[in-house]
Amino acid sequence: MALISIIKDFHPLGNEKLLSRAEQLRPVLRHTIREPIGGFQLKERYSPEKHEIVLQQLPHLSMGRGENLCLDFGEHLVGYLTLELGYSGSHPDAPAFLKLKFAETLQELSENSQEYDGWLSRSWIQEEYLHVDQLPSRLVLPRRYAFRYLKITMMDTSPKYKLIVRHAECRTESSADWSAVRKLDSGDRQLDRIHEVSLKTLANCMQEEFEDGPKRDRRLWVGDLRLMAMTNAMSFKNFDLVKRCLYLFGGSRFPDGRVSANVFTRPAVEADDTFLFDYALLYTVTVEEYLQDTNDTEALDDLYDIAMQQIEYAIRQIDETGTVGGQAVKDCFIDWCEDLDKTACATAMLLYALRYARRLARRKNDWSQANFLLQQHDTLRRAAMRRFWDEDRQCFVSNGQISAASQVWMVLADACSPEQALKAMRKALTLSEGARMSTPYMHHYYVMALIRVGLLSEAEQHLRHYWGSMLDAGADTFWECWDPEHPERSPYGGSVVNSYCHAWSCTPAYIIEKHLLPERETND
Amino acid sequence: MALISIIKDFHPLGNEKLLSRAEQLRPVLRHTIREPIGGFQLKERYSPEKHEIVLQQLPHLSMGRGENLCLDFGEHLVGYLTLELGYSGSHPDAPAFLKLKFAETLQELSENSQEYDGWLSRSWIQEEYLHVDQLPSRLVLPRRYAFRYLKITMMDTSPKYKLIVRHAECRTESSADWSAVRKLDSGDRQLDRIHEVSLKTLANCMQEEFEDGPKRDRRLWVGDLRLMAMTNAMSFKNFDLVKRCLYLFGGSRFPDGRVSANVFTRPAVEADDTFLFDYALLYTVTVEEYLQDTNDTEALDDLYDIAMQQIEYAIRQIDETGTVGGQAVKDCFIDWCEDLDKTACATAMLLYALRYARRLARRKNDWSQANFLLQQHDTLRRAAMRRFWDEDRQCFVSNGQISAASQVWMVLADACSPEQALKAMRKALTLSEGARMSTPYMHHYYVMALIRVGLLSEAEQHLRHYWGSMLDAGADTFWECWDPEHPERSPYGGSVVNSYCHAWSCTPAYIIEKHLLPERETND
Description:
2 copies of one chain form a homodimer. Chain A is an alpha+beta fold. Chain A is built from 15 helices and 17 strands. In chain A, about 40% of the residues lie in helices and about 20% in strands. In chain A, the strands form 4 sheets. In chain A, strands 2, 3, 4, 5, 6, 7, 8, 9, 10 and 11 form a 10-stranded antiparallel beta sheet that branches. The interface of A and B includes residues 91, 122, 155, 267 and 270 of A.
């Protein structure tokens, strides 16, 4: 995820105790060596037309000025590249000038990055220009890349020699322990593949923190963390990593105690000056879910106050309508969707989080707080129904707009009766234009809402359609943004900066294991 | 110097004994730290319009997308760059994407390297594109550069932060020992400055070998070595470095024993597959001059046969006219000048080298060889005069062409009587069009020929005009190519790959100390 917020003279609130505990929880990274499974040459500079090469040819292929070689590593990798370079012809009398382009997808490989003019920094484009002064040479690149494909273009040699790529390998990096997970073998090939790719997506985002994307932004966002933590609990079970991330968020916050939408961890831990209303609430949710999974009393003691602070801040954003208003609505992320009216969602998010906060208060034996939260919940729920439930249309309406997002979050928040919730989701199923959902993040909650109202087969169908169509489009890991009807869509003004292995897209493994498979077993 | 010759399946003749001795003679490199003396911003991308910055402003100057900062180190440097980078604004949320351009001259700095389309590899252009993942950051660049100016362009940051260059420094590298030389203080400012810049040029080319240019080609060429060795003998007196270079040439040669025009030393010593007739002869000359300076009997024993081999090969290139013909003429470098007819020069080069070879034979007490060489010399001299001396025009004519180069080399070769030599050089002084001299390499021999015929004040005047006009054009070190009437001239199809600190341009210090100053003292 990426958002631009700038606060002048922002000085985060630091908590040394939490940061030092987070440091102790830094995971050991695991490594493997991966080699390409094949290669090809792109004939036209920016067209995907390919000339296939078998791997055995590689050490005999020499590249002159302007020629390129694309290596296919066969799967999505996160790690460090080593190239062994040689030459043919005379002794090199000038440096080799190379351009390396790392790409997560074939489309990204063939895009012309010169043409990118979006609002995200072009510095995210995984390209390097390198001079190699000596040949033969073993080139170990210092930066980490996320890629399946590597395009090597000879910007220049000299007439006296051509370059040979004798060997290429990637030293992968991840804190995920694959020995802890079982491969799904349900007999259903699509479901098995969705499950596998979900876990691969999660594993490649599991580094020293849960990163939102190993290509971009490579850092810890609350919304992504919550979904990764859920899926991790069903698979890799690296609860220490979840704990570390919760402590990082707690360890560097807004001066008034709010949890930042994301924290930087390099060179030191520092909260970003970006606040998202829904993300701060999801922090409290994630703390409660972590405690459900672990019963970690140390974490309960350390994080309880911070988790409650987020709720209390949100409660203060309730205006004279009795629902969340003002800046808090603008501070909601919900989805990459400019048309979306987020007023109903903002209130629903608080309702949703209040349920988790209450559980947390009870866990802490903080009964007065639990009662306070219950009262707040009931008052807010009634105000929400008054303002957003449309009795005629039998769905939620946010300032005149009927969106899937409003239905989803009101349903997940238990704002209405089961009958109303079912109707709201039936309505959501009919929506196709206007405020379209664009991210797997939003689609996850959409599927969860369908499950919540009992529309299990619709939930499964949507999961298969949405994540399955990504597979059909060539995904090795699930993508940051995907609209099956608008495959080229990017929230950043250019798909070359899109992330094609993105944390918030990893949840199908969770949904399948938690909801779809048990249901099947029951039906059998 | 740079030439393109390609021989398929070229396997140089190696001599382990000489190579291992060369390795023992590898010099210790000396280092200093240099910081910028000021800076400026180039307002238009490729125009030299400048906005001056005083150094104290630097740590407060922040650079956004597309902005640049040029640092002026105040003198020509060869070494390694370190940058200390910081930022202003929010915590960097994207890598910094920088372009660094190192330039020896202000003109090079403002050239658009994209427009270069010459025959030398564009990989010589000293530009890097870098991604900096963390800020603040200390960036130590691994490659060696030759530069006075450094242009840092922000290709992209993000809207959240700007880059600050807190500190920059260059760790210089050279094997020259400045404590061994005295600064000339002749009372003549132009002469003193020419002397100083000559030595600076030599010092910056003195690395682990005598490099032809620290920017390009960064390797050992015979023609450059000879001139550097001469100037070194009058200044830094690093005779071990001369010896090392002579052993490197001897240690890897053409399969038939010829000395290559240049040798590579990295990753291992290997002769280039380029042969230059005049350069091979200059090897013999350089060996003899080294022995004059040192009386090194080990070197005499080790290199004698190889030095003689070059002469014997050249003698075999004498054709039925009694002068050097065929491929040997084509294999002559002499100068970067396409119009030049090199037939007379080729014969003159052999005559010239025969004189040094005779001295070498006498030094070795090889009297039969000395006699043989004397006979060859006399026969060749007569043939040369018959073919090239034009009695009517009282100068040397090479296939109808009267060039400075033909006069110079015939005079230096003692091909004619002193009266004829004087007339030839008087003729050379009148030549201004056609086969114009273009390099300091050729101009050096031109000045030496003027001195040889006694035209001392013309020699001094030419030296002041030619090297002095480079100073007037902003030289901090002397350039590879220079034609005062055509400042933009490049033999490579684009001046951005020109070398502006070039070994063969360092000889004024030698000429001044050896010929101009003693003459003055006598005249006093």
